Structures are given as C-alpha cells and as structure tokens.
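== Folding the chain ==

***
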Amino acid sequence: MTRAPFLLGALALLAAPLVSVDAQSRGLPLTVNDVGVGIGPVPRVIGIRLNFRDDADFDVHGINITVWTPQNDLRGEVNGVALGLPATGASRITGLAAGVFGVGADRSIDGIGVGGLGLGAGRRLRGIMVGGLGVGSGGSVTGVALGGLGVGAGSDVEGIAIGGLGAGSGGRVEGLAIGGLGVGAGQGARGILVGGAGVGSGESITGLAIGGLGVGSGEDLRGIAIGGVGVGVGERLTGLTIAGIGVGAGEDVNGITIAGVGVGSGGTLRWLSIAGVGIGAPRIEGAAIAPAVGASSAKALVVAPAYMRIEDGTFQGVSVSAFNHVKGTQRGLTIGVFNYARSLHGVQLGVLNYAKSNRAPFKLLPIINVAAR
C-alpha cells in the first residue's frame, strides 16, 4: 500500500510520451466518468488524485494528495481527504485536511485539520483544527482549535481555543479560551477565559476570566474575574472580583469585590467590598471594609479601622472607624475615637464627638452626641 503513490507516479512518467500535450497539461486521468485515479493536474476526480503541485482549478471528491501547496492562489475544492506530503492546500476543504508541514485554504476548512507546523484559512475554520505552531483564520474559527504557539482569528472565535502563548480574536470570543500568556478579544468575550499573563477585551466580558497579572475590559464585565495584580473595566463591573492589588471600574461596581490594596469605582459601589488599604467611590451602598474608606455619599456598613470620610453628601448606616469624618450630613450611627459631622441627624459614639450643626455647648461632647439645634 505504501508503494502505490510511487508506482502511480512511475506510470505517469511512462505514459507521458504517449499522450498529447493537451492531455499532459491536464494530467493523466485513469478514470471512467471522472471516477478512478487521476495523476497530475486532472481537473476533476471522484476517487484518488495525485499531484505534485496544483496551478489551476480542480474538484476532488475523495482523496487529494499533493507534495506542495498550490503555485499561485489556493485553488480548487476537496471533499473528502486533503493530504500534504509535506504540504497541501485548496480554496475549500471539507472533510479531513492534514499536512506534515501544514495545510492552507483560501476560503475555508470544514471538518478536521492537522498541520505539523501550522494550519490556516482565509475566511473560515470550522471543526477540529490542530497546528504544531499555530492555527489561524482571516475570518472565523468555530469548534476546537489547538495551536502550539497560538490561535488567532480576524473575526469571531466560537468553541474551544487553546494556544501555547496566546489565543486572540479581532471579533468576539465565545466558549473556552486559554492562552499561555494571554487571551484577547477585540469585540467582547463570553465564556471561560484564562490567560497566563492576562485576559483583555475591547468590549464586554461575560463569564469567568482569570489573568495571571490582570483582567481588563473596555466596557462591562459580568461574572467572575480574578487578576493576580488587577482587574479593570471601562464601564460596569458585576459579580465576584478578586485582585492581588487593585480593582477599578469607570462606572458602577456590583457584587463581591476583594483587592489586596484598593477598590475604586467611578459610579456606585454596591454589595460587599474588601480591600487591604482603601476603598473609594462617589457612592457606596452595602458594606465596605478597608483601613480607609471614602465616598461622596454612602448608605452602608463601613468598617474602616483608620479613617472614614464622606466628602459632601449624606451618610446613612453604621460606620466604625478611628476617625469618622462626615463633611456632609450624617443620618446614621458612627462609632470611633473621634467623630465629626458637619450636619448631624443621627448618633455619634466615641471618645470625642463633634457636630458642627449643633448649638453650643453641644457641638463637642464626649461619649455620645446627637442632633441639638
């Protein structure tokens, strides 16, 4: 069986002087109604076709075996098996595509593709694709794609994409994407995303995102985000977020947020936030726990061993801190060593309690202070 290609090649050489120039240009068709074996550039074969290198259109239903990729553009269609010894290519391949070096398609590969070095298509890869170095598509990748170094698509990636260094898409990534260094999507991502260094998206991320250094999204992030150093989003952050150093969002943060150093939000910080150094947002709702907590207004439980500050809005809830500094209106309970409120409508408990809005002599009192106009 292994000698068949060589015997067919020898047959083609022996028969060459016996056929016309036109026949030679079209190869040697050992076929009946296109069914059989074609040797050389036979344009249509239903069966087995053997050619060194294609340089014209062809249509194969069966097995197409070549030594090298097409001379000019990647032409022709293969429905069945495209085998490269060591490389092969076509315009469209449907079925099994395999090359010792690699496989290429101008338009698409649908089915199973294996390239010793790499595998690529100009428009679409769909099915199971494996490249020793990489797998790439100028358009979309759908199914399973495994690249020794990387997996990339100019458009969307849907399914499973795993790259030794990275996996990326110019469009959306949906499914499972793992990159030794990173995972990136230009137009959003949804699913499970794991990057050794980082995970990033130009638009929203939904699902689970884990980055050895960080996770970033240009728009919203919804789900679970874990960053070894930080997690940052341009708009809203919703779900469970954990970062070694910091978490930040340009707009609201909703959920459970934990950071080794700090948590910050450009909008409202809701639910539970915990940080090793500080927490800050224009408004806090829920619970905030950190050595220092600051906001313009808050309706929350605040535990800030060092310092709690309300800039100019209203504080409602309970705050426990060495220094509760309410530069606006207090309508809840503050407990600390020193409590300050510009306008007190609640209760202060501490060593010293100052209410600027109270009349003398009730502005500065020990132990407890309440509103006294």
Q: What stands out?
A: The first strand starts at residue 28 and ends at 32. The two ends are 104 Å apart (CA to CA).
